[in-house]
Fold these 2 entries.
Entry 1:
Amino acid sequence: MAARLRAPGFYRAGVMMVGAVAFATLLTWAVRASTGHSTFHHFIEANAILTVSLLAVPLAFLIGIGGFDYWFYWAIGKKTRAEDHSGHGAYSWKDYFRINTDHKVIGVQYTVTSFFFLLVGGLIAMLMRAELAQPGAQFVDANTFNGLFSVHASLLIFLFIIPVFAGLANFVLPLMIGAPDMAFPRLNALSYWLLPIAGVMMIASFFAPGGAFADGWTAYAPLSDNAPIGQTFFSVAVQFAGASSIMTALNFLVTIITMRAPGMSFFRLPLLVWANFATSLLVVIATPFIAASQFFVLLDRALRFNFFNAAKGGDVLMYQHVFWFYSHPAVYIMMLPGFGIISEIIAVKSRKPIFGYRMMAFSLLAIVALGFTVWAHHMFTSGMAAWIRIPMAVTTAIIAVPTGIKIFSWLATLWRGVLHLDTPMLFALGFLTTFTLGGISGVMLAMVPFDIHVSATYFIVAHIHYVLFGGSLMTIFAGVYYWFPKMTGRMYDERLGRWHFWTTFILFNLTFGPMHVLGLQGMPRRVATYASQFSSMNLFISIASFGLGLSTLIFIYNMVTSWRGGPRAVGNPWRGLTLEWQVSSPPPVFNFDRVPTVVGGPYEYGVPGAVHGTFAPPATAGASAGIVGAPSQ
Amino acid sequence: MPSRRSLSVASAAALIATALGILISYLIHWFPAQASTQAHNTDVLYHVLVIASIPIFVLVVTVILFSVWQFRVRPGEELKDGPPIHGNTRLEVLWTAFPAVLLLGLVSYSFVVLHDNEQGRPASEIQIQATGQQFAWSYQYPPSVTGGAPVTSDKLYVPKGQSVYFNIRAKDVIHAFWIPAFRLQEDAVPGITTHWRVTPTRLGSFPVVCNLLCGLGHSLMRSTVHVVTPTQFRTWIKAQASTASAGAGGAASGTGTTG
Ligand code: HEM
Ligand SMILES: [Cu+2]
Ligand SMILES: [Cu+2]
């Protein structure tokens, strides 16, 4: 037992978490006593202990499961264990529940965890739609309702869309560039384990005194400054989710820059790699801003710093500027990896090279740069200085140009191809239509007088779901089906896949299409009840949304049963040229038994005899096996 | 290459779809009552945006459906590849430049509308202050409007055909002062005063909605704006002013008149 408690794992983590609560309590008492505040049986004190615990307990958990062991050994001068790869690979399901340094295992951990949070967030959405089926109060009170939409959005943004893309890329990106792993496998493991912490914290806020955080995923101050303790769960959870994003993004950047196979120049990179390169730049530059915005709120709440208290010289609008300086780039963090997925699928399933490859890469970089110049389009009605609206509206209109280039390039790739209309391709084509609508409503929102009318209404709810559900989620489904054989070594059920696509596509439009009209007509977002004139349309939307929720069950059923008993997948079921398809499904533990050498572009379909990568003959591979086997860190 | 016939079928379908789309966009009742000059300008802008968007959306969908129709894999083609076309510089320049020009045109037009909507009309303008507080709106009519003591009321009356300049304030957290019938909204922000300007054009009563999450009662933070004739407005405000100076108390004033 003692050995168990000392070895990294859940037992040790449990002990350390208890210790962390004790530490938080003692620290709070000590500080309060030494500053002349009351100590026992005090409500404020309980909140203080909870706040400190929210920071300390997760760190204890990470230390307990062994997230820092290697670095601690190194820091205290102990002998570090030479990399023996004991942390690599998964041989039983238990290997998914420990610190694992294999990017493929981490990719699966990320993806499955994110989908768990998709289900939770989706269930919450069902509750909201039940409440909104009729005006007036049905099932939940206003406080619970505000908690529901806040947790819904926060989970789906921070615990689903952002990490699921990181998960898919974790799995396929090193394979695509011909690398044996990510550049920093231990950092990779740590960044995964930050996620469940953030997610559990957000969900746990429902059990906090006063209920879950209830002022939206945007958490505008000063409302959030004075909200019950549930708000602190959000402020802290965002720190963990954000730290996870930043670590992964750094890891992707270093991996892409330093670990490409011989011959893999930047302009031979598959566009998924380009997309994640661009996304990682956005993440690394922007994420510290949301961390800052939530630290400000935390300090306002816990220690009365009055950053956003106008009566004490605080600046209320500053919160929004800092928040959106992250959160606009974040919408592209949630879209660019999906662009990458779609490029892969459309090229392979149309059997044609991507039309205008270089423009596809450059448009990603243009979006990164422009993405930092548009944030105040979320603030057209905020009361900021009026002139800021003009330049921000221009840049917002202009950012649609690189987005348009991508859509037109995909269309031109379809043209005269040989289209294989299976599930991944159906989702890709569905994405093109729904995302175009989301882009169009986005451009409309760049027009200030129009935005003044619809800002913060259901029109915005429609826009964000057309780009995030019709956009991001469609690409995620497409990507999951596309790489399912590679990740699991099994084929999914094609018939169920098509059912899933058609139900999702139709019910999605029925659910979110009418919301445009609701917003124009005057229905605000984030309301638990509404004027009776909106009731028939809301009832329609609620019914459609229940169907949409059910359609997800087809997907889950397909994934679970196919993973357990689907037909075995061959290495390259789609006849793709990129490197991940040139190894077995699932790939060997160190990805490539022989070092790949890249000799051409990634999408040379239709070019007679074209190859993207070749594999060095066994003799040379033997010589470099040492490098292949030892991920550097 | 796709046949000429299939291309003309697709072009015809796209044209019909565009025409139908534009027609339908006129038939749909997008907006609530249009009760101000600003609302009129914004609605025209919206229709222009919709008309510009429909051909683009139809183009995208037509290319997708046409490709599915003409280029889907046929029996025996399972292992075939498409032609290795890598790009076409002229096409790529075109689909960069054309949207850029279109977007800059639209955004410039939106600035014209914005300017028209916000332009001052000081000659006949009156000022009213709207104050947001969890979870109700109150309105302050200054002496320049009442001609006597300032009036505070939970009722909002505005004269038709006259420019009204709103000063918007918040007492606690952020709210948003939105009147859908006017198509105007601006946040009420603690610590600063924000503004909007409207010229009501239609008599009647329309909803005032708080459009920014402000806490538990947010969904019910609604009130009503009454657009009345200038004469009715003067009568109403006089009545308010006299009750106010009669010592009825600022907060309770306005209850004497029903909307
Ligand atoms: C053509 C490109 C786009 C343009 C021009 C655009 C424009 C806008 C504008 C102006 C707003 C602010 C509306 C308001 O609050 O009054 C907005 C909101 C939003 N957009 Fe977009 N958008 C585009 C694409 C996207 C994409 C690709 C995503 C994500 C995948 C996205 C996600 C969002 C979200 C989440 C919000 C609402 C945030 C909130 O208030 O909660 N947009 N968009
Ligand atoms: Cu934005
Ligand atoms: Cu409100």
Entry 2:
Amino acid sequence: MSKLRYALYTGCTARESTPELLKSTLAVAEALDIELVLLDEATCCGASHLQDFDDFLSLVLNARNICYAEKLNLPMVTICNTCQLNTSLTKERLDHDEKLKEKVNEKLREVGLEYKGTSEVKHFLYALVDDLGVEEIAKKVKKPLKGLNWAAFYGCHNIRPSELQNKSNGGENPYNPTSIDRLIEALGGNSVDYEHKNKCCGFHVELQAPKTANRLSASALTDAIDNNADAVVTPCPLCHLRFDVQQHNISKEAGREVHIPIFHLPQMIGLALGIEPEKLGINHNVTEPDFIS
Amino acid sequence: MEEIAKKRLKFKVFRFNAERDYLPHYDEFELEVSQDEVVLDILNKIKWEHDGSLSYRRSCRHGICGSCAIKVNNKPVLSCKERVFDLVEIFGEELVLEPQDKKRAYKDFVINKSNFWEKYNSVKPYLIAQVDEHPKSENIVSPEEAEKIEDADYCIQCGNCFYACPVVEANEEYIGPAAFVKAYRFTADVRDEDKKERLEIVDKIGPGVWDCVKCFECAEACPKELSPITKITHLHNQIFEEGVAKSNVAVRHAVGFKHSIKKHGILDEGELVRYSEGNFGVLKHLPEAIAMFKKGKIVPPWKMPKSKNLDEVKKLIKSSSTTKF
Ligand code: SF4
Ligand code: SF4
Ligand code: SF4
Ligand code: FES
């Protein structure tokens, strides 16, 4: 197989509040011999909020981001579910509406860019499980995740709306997603079966409706804990921020002690590949795992 | 003749009678199912051949009355539309049949849907217009104007989106996806004269669109593929276009992204929270901010990263902005 190469759209969180996500992504890519070219020109995707205010502006900015991947002639990978949603939704709309594409390109041309639609957009998770393959990753495991129960939390914007997401997520079913669970097993861990794995963490209303956000998170985490999870793993930095940084508030809403370490997907993979925890930024996690030496 | 595939499947069926039972239980049935049968065929088979007391709603059997909605392995379905074999493909050979909302069950699959209808009625689900009873000319709606409504008038009020919505469960006030679709059906109708008032209703923090968590469960659940969340986005846009938006934390949060992108290209997370909450409100996030700071999760303002070619971004924001606040 020829070397896998992608343009990496980091999103904002990986450069600010979840530096461990960027660190662990780069470390895992290196260990798996995947080349990632950073898109330093890219802006924020609007995090599924900007389009509520200004839909057209959101389209133009997201199209601009994709342009830079197209310039490199590379498929784009994202490492945040919501970036994935906004980017692929923009792509979908422009690729199926010539008029809209032309309207957007009119603006982009003013700064010397053009959106063509030549780069695919997928989340890094699916670059790993669909392009590289779970078996390939399994071959490189040095420290199997033996004896640990991992609860996969998929995050909405990788699996819904399925009509859109199925174009880049290997046909994952939103009611019964399996990719992360398959990955966990391939890394030697036990994947936890629990009802809330495909539910929402509530991140997007954290400011205006903290009670709702904490309720949704509490249902998810207590479900994972009650099904004997030792840790939760997620491909979405927003879910991670919610569960990791807000765990004390989630506890309050749950009315019981909620205490469980939360990992980014590449952090978990990195541990199994034998990468030092330091390089995976585990020290940045607020919920400290007690099983890593 | 082509042979019809058949399978023996196990069904776990939710049973509850509010007049008699304290807790629900599940009955198990093993049935032979053929490839063309839908979930409603299974319910009928159980009722007609095994247990006549099984209760569920159905009427048209054509996906139009919206009464037969239930959940199978937590997936909202219209019983008369969903093929059993398609469900087996997703969930395997054991299927769990449950009402849309277990807490609201009267008897088996028949639920108390009053919360759905209350919310539905709260958006004034009817055209409000002064009708001239003796018009001198036709009241013409152009095809382009009619298209604005999209497919919002195809809703069959099945409630699948509503009972799949996690916010409906977490926040009793929340109007919910079906009623938002209905609200949009009229705010997008050129004949309607109550657009602003409707937008005021859905703009309220608590019941309104700002409390949507953007999980897309409604889009996934809708048997008519109406994508309620897309209509919710349109309502957000109309709230700004019609000048209904108030300066509150949710509105500033949406607007704040633009300011941040203009300044840095990427988002200034700390500044977004400050801008949204205000200088005083932001203080309540202090405990989290301290925990994050200790873990190296806060970038100080002087180290804030910027996107390359930021001048491009500034130009685009100037040329492509369509709304003001
Ligand atoms: S799970 Fe929460 S944070 Fe993650 S993508 Fe969905 S809404 Fe966003
Ligand atoms: S996207 Fe919004 S309205 Fe739709 S199910 Fe989720 S929270 Fe409810
Ligand atoms: S929007 Fe769709 S799912 Fe919701 S009530 Fe109408 S038809 Fe049913
Ligand atoms: S019976 Fe009418 S929609 Fe199913």
